[in-house]
Design a protein that fits this description.
Blueprint lengths: L6 H11 L3 H21 L5 H13 L1 H7 L7 H28 L1 H5 L2 H6 L7 H27 L4 H28 L3 H24 L2 E2 L6 E2 L8 H6 L11 H21 L24 H29 L4 H4 L3 H11 L4 H34 L2 H5 L5 H35 L2 H13 L2 H17 L4 H18 L7 H4 L17 H24 L7
Antiparallel strand pairs: 1-2
Helix pairs in contact: 1-8, 2-5, 2-8, 4-10, 5-8, 5-9, 5-10, 8-9, 9-10, 9-12, 13-16, 13-18, 15-16, 16-18, 16-20, 16-21, 18-19, 18-20, 18-23, 20-21, 20-23
């Protein structure tokens, strides 16, 4: 029996497990980039307007760090500047989750040990996970290229965009395979993969920020940090601009070296263990851990810290370019685009209304992620052990709900503070900017509570499908609610999202009626969830 015996069977098993999840990821990412291209194409009516926008992007250090400069002055190049880096981040996230799910999580749940008792080679599981990642990334290359061609983009640049997305994805699949060998749990492996992704983003951002603007005042030669980041390599393919292919070799080399390291590490450890020693807890627990809220807070605080820091960085960047909104969206078409997102009136207020509304929906991802943990804790976590004590089911669920909403409020406050401080610094009105933007972000707690109530109701009534239903609701709020106006969707459909029922802050005043109505709806949904959990049996090991 060779080390790869059974790879084909395990690959088919992985495909079977991800038969719904993976196609949604791939199709969604391809459609996302194509929709950005389609939007950019309709924003500028002349070459002069596109050139002016590209030059503003190259001249602004914050914009370069956040999205990267444009590789040219055409619609395709502006699309790359607007969407390539963030789409690459999402592609990397897809590959991190995929590899962790089919390697370290299988070991943590005992599946790898069960499979290993049959005629399966030592490296078959890791190879199957990487083959699945390769299939997903190849599909992404094909779909994203076809989607961009469908928007009328040039062939060469569209192919390069697809190659950039797919090869960046494979690089992170390889890096995550190392993380899966180093750590002892799926959560730690995913966290290490996320840390690698964040480091890659910061290196790319620093490289673009400190790079040199070329004589055409559009393109930027990045500084050295960008050249040690897989995200920077993908960006340097420069689709629709100079069109380089050689950075692909760096991404493929990174993938190959990472996989070789992961294979070597897997030989030197036992199944279920990691190369890094797991940190052991204290011999005696603090008194706060004896209460449900204290225990849930301890379990969620790492996730919350990551969200607060990450979203604050985004807020600072959006606030830092607030004084250049008039220049970035100088044409009537691009200004109307901003107003479609954030409402009519002053362009700066519309910009902040649109951006803060979008980021607030993104913050709701923390809320859903935090509450979906109820289900995973029920399957393989501490729920069963906790409920054998004097803690009631109602108390346990409400502790999770309280920590999720408190954490959401902290993340929203971090968003408002960082955006307000950055915009106040560049505009010279610190007090006014802080007050307006804090009110704008904290008001989003009401619609987020509705989404939290929906997630609780799904957990109580449909436990096996709770995660899928909750994330689907989040996707509806993000896509239909935030981009429904741009997609010309009917108001009745856009109104499904609770985030569309607040006034366009900070341009308009906050009123109590929608906040009270959404709070009442959230309470009813949470009550349904609690009642459902109290009446049903625990679903263990699902």
């Amino acid at each position: 029996m060779s080390a790869l015996t059974g790879t084909g069977v395990l690959t088919r098993l992985a495909l079977r497990r991800d038969r719904l999840r993976l196609p949604l990821w791939v199709a969604g990412l391809a459609a996302l980039f194509a929709s950005i291209g389609n939007s950019i194409s309709g924003l500028y009516d002349s070459d002069a307007a596109r050139l002016e926008n590209a030059q503003v992007r190259a001249d602004n250090v914050v914009t370069r760090a956040f999205t990267g400069p444009a590789p040219g002055a055409g619609s395709g190049a502006l699309t790359v500047s607007e969407g390539l880096v963030f789409t690459c981040v999402l592609v990397a996230l897809m590959n991190i989750l995929l590899v962790v799910r089919h390697t370290r999580q299988n070991e943590e749940l005992g599946r790898a040990e069960l499979v290993g008792s049959t005629a399966v080679g030592r490296h078959a599981g890791l190879t199957a996970a990487l083959l699945l990642a390769a299939l997903a990334n190849v599909a992404l290359i094909v779909l994203s290229t076809l989607a961009l061609l469908g928007t009328g983009m040039p062939v060469g640049g569209s192919v390069l965009v697809g190659v950039a997305l797919g090869t960046v994805g494979m690089a992170f699949a390889g890096l995550t395979s190392i993380a899966a060998q180093l750590t002892e749990s799926a959560r730690a492996a995913g966290g290490l993969g996320g840390l690698l992704l964040a480091t890659a983003f910061l290196l790319r951002a620093a490289g673009d920020a400190f790079g040199n603007t070329a004589s055409d005042k559009v393109t930027v030669d990045p500084a050295w940090p960008s050249w040690i980041s897989p995200l920077g390599w993908g960006q340097q393919l420069r689709p629709y601009g100079e069109s380089r292919l050689w950075p692909v070799a760096l991404l493929l080399l990174c993938t190959a070296v990472s996989v070789l390291i992961a294979v070597q590490l897997s030989v030197h450890r036992d199944v279920g263990t990691g190369m890094l020693p797991a940190r052991r807890g204290a011999a005696r627990a603090r008194s706060s851990l004896l209460k449900p809220i204290g225990l849930v807070w301890r379990l969620q605080r790492g996730l919350l810290l990551g969200w607060v820091v990450g979203i604050a960085v985004f807020g600072a960047v959006f606030g830092g370019i607030g004084d250049q909104v008039e220049d970035l969206f100088s044409s009537e078409e691009s200004a109307q685009f901003v107003r479609d997102l954030g409402g009519e009136g002053d362009l700066v207020n519309a910009y902040f209304a649109g951006m803060m509304g979008l980021l607030s929906v993104v913050v709701a991802g923390f809320t859903v992620q935090s509450l979906v943990r109820l289900r995973s804790d029920e399957e393989n976590g501490p729920t069963e052990a906790v409920l054998t004590t004097a803690v009631s089911r109602t108390h346990w669920v409400l502790a999770h709900a309280f920590v999720a909403l408190l954490g959401t409020a902290l993340v929203l406050a971090g968003l408002g503070l960082s955006t307000g401080l950055a915009y106040g610094a560049v505009s010279g009105d610190l007090t006014g900017a802080l007050g307006d933007l804090l009110e704008t972000t904290l008001a989003q707690l009401a619609p987020t509570a509705v989404l939290a109530g929906f997630a609780l109701a799904a957990f109580g009534v449909l436990p096996r499908g709770a995660a899928t239903v909750s994330w689907a609701a989040f996707a509806v709020c993000l896509v239909i609610g935030q981009f429904g106006t741009l997609l010309d969707l009917p108001d009745s459909l856009i109104g499904i999202s609770p985030f569309t029922h607040l006034p366009d802050l900070p341009a308009e005043s906050l009123t109590a009626a929608p906040v009270l109505a959404m709070s009442a709806l959230a309470t009813v949904l949470a009550a349904v969830g609690v009642a459902g959990f109290r009446r049903r049996s625990l679903v263990l090991g699902g």
